[in-house]
Each structure stands twice: as structure tokens, then as C-alpha cells.
Amino acid sequence: MSVTAAQGFTAAGIAAGIKANGNPDLALVVNNGPRLAAAGVFTSNRVKAAPVHWSEQVLRGGTVSAVVLNSGGANACTGPKGFQDTHATAEKVAATLGGEFNAGEIAVASTGLIGVLLPMDKLLPGIETAAAALSADGGEAAAIAIKTTDTVHKTATVSQGGWTVGGMAKGAGMLAPGLATMLVVLTTDADLDSSTLDRALRAATRTTFDRVDSDGCMSTNDTVLLLASGASGQVPAYEEFAQAVRTVCDDLARQLIGDAEGASKDIRIEVIGAASEDDAVEVGRSIARNNLLKCAIHGEDPNWGRVLSAIGTTKAAFDPDRLNVAINGVWVCKNGSVGEDRDLVSMKDREVRITADLATGSESAVIWANDLTAEYVHENSAYSS
Question: I want to staple 261 with a disulfide (CB 3.0 to 4.6 A). Which of 76, 173, 191, 237 is the partner?
């Protein structure tokens, strides 16, 4: 049930007419309390969409009563009018929900084409329709409504000790995040304050969403929100809660890579033997963004030379004559030179595992990426996305 798996939340997903194809394009998630605590992380792209600027301000207060999300338009690079539209969206949600709701506690998220104003004549009436459709079973409809080039909607839940963490995500392209990845809403009925949520969320995103690197392109709209209703009355230990949040984030991050635009291979890149975690992450990202390697993986060619070439572009500490590389468990490169027979490597499966050993220290990191295909090029050249 996605974001409504946790008690205290209702959601809806409807077609407001923002998308020309008539598909669902507007989602609403409401926290019915009794607690309205929240935390969020956002894109580190210096070009930020209007809803990111708005929601960053909202999250400074640590209270979010509802989130409204639209697909079919990013509302990015739209100037003062775009920000006014975001403000108007939050005002409309607050007015429609009534009662104690106010715009300063409504987070807004958008996804779609950059540089185009949203059709407010469709979006604002759509909020009324979505509000009327809110239900405790509306999580799946909400997840469907935030899709753009996604082929499937993405949800995950973890329940334990009488409390739950649930979530939904969208994203298939521009997956090279800094702190967040496209649009994600997480909910919990645990009774925790905003500072605890913030600590757990940042710890989780750092090793999950922030280590998904599909195409080296960072979005202007990346948003991850975590809302707590406190409806279960349970106050879990921090470590237990943080692990549950990380599990849900990891599940959603893997689903994002699995649905990446045009991809035919999921690539797990593990960097070991690094002098620092930062070195391991830098090397992993360099390997993930090497287009020659991504093409080789698509062609099922265990071209380990391209892995070494990518490592060599980084500032990480290593000795080129001590580097080791394994592809699907076969150490095709040993001590910076020819290792086991590359013909021993089978790459028929969807998942390809690359291990890069820097032989310098004890730190490690895992980055997830995917191959580069003709389908990816077609999807991003045949039409705007």
C-alpha cells in the first residue's frame, strides 16, 4: 500500500489533464496525525525547480501536513511565475483540505519537462478531485500518478514492532543524485520528532539513493520526504528505525535502477580496498559514468581495461600496478595487468557485478548503474522528457 501502509495517512492519484495522453498525473498524500513531523533532502543541483525552493522552506519548520505531487511538468526554470504557481498549489491544497491545514505546511513536488509552465487551469481543479478521492488505500494510485518515463510504479514497505515505514518513488532518467533521487515520499506511523527523522533520512539516502548513478545527469527536482504521523503510538529505538528507513530506501533505489530508461543490464559496482569511503565513492561513480564501459556491458564484453581507465581519472589513492578487477567473480585484472581468462566471465544475466580493488586501505562503497543502449538514446532524442 505504499505511502498508506503506515497508519495515519491517506492518499490519492488522479488524472488532472496535465499530461496530454490522459494518464494519471496528480498525487496527494495527507498526514492525518496526530504528529505532523517531517524531514526532507533535495537535489544539490544549483539549478533548482520552484517546488524544490518552496519545499525546502516548508521543511525548515519540520512540519508537513500534506504533499502534492504532479507529473507532466517539472516547473523548473520557470522564473517568478513558476514559484507563484507552486505557492498557489500549496494554497489550493490547504483551502481544499480545510480545517487546520495551511500552505506553509504543504510540500510540493513536480516532475516532467523542464522550462515549461504548468497548466494551472487543470492542476488546481485536479487538487479538488484528488482530495475527494483520498483514502487509506490510495497509496498505489498515488505512486502511479507520479510516473513519467517509468514503466512501472515503485513502492516498498517494512513493518515491525507495531509500526511501519512505507514509501513510493518515481524515476527512470536523470538518476545521478546528490542527496536525493527524483521524487520519493516515505511515511511512518512511528512517533518520532523531525530531528530524528532528519538524521535517519540523511543516513539512509547517503548509502542508497545517493549511490544510484544511472546516466550521470542530476535532476533539478530531486526530492525525498519522510513524514511521521505517530498514529501507532510506538517510539522505536533510533537504530531500529534508521535501519527500516534504509531498507525501504534501498528497495526503492534498486527499483529505480531496474527501470532505468532503455537499460538491459543492472551494474553493481563495488569498490574495495580504498583508503577512504570518499575515495571508494569517487571511483565507483567514475566507473558508473564511463560510457565506453557501459556500452561494453551492453554488448556483454568484460572489457576490464575500461574499468582501469575510469579509475585512473580520479584523485583516489592507489598504485596502478596493484589494481585488481573482477567481473562476475572472475579476476580478469590482477596487479594492474592481465588476470584470469576473460572468456570465463558469463554476462548473460541481467545483473553484472564489477569489483574494483584499490589495494590501498580497508574502506569500500557500492554504486549501482546500468548499461548504455540504443533504446536509451532513442528515448531521450525522439521526444522531450
Answer: 173
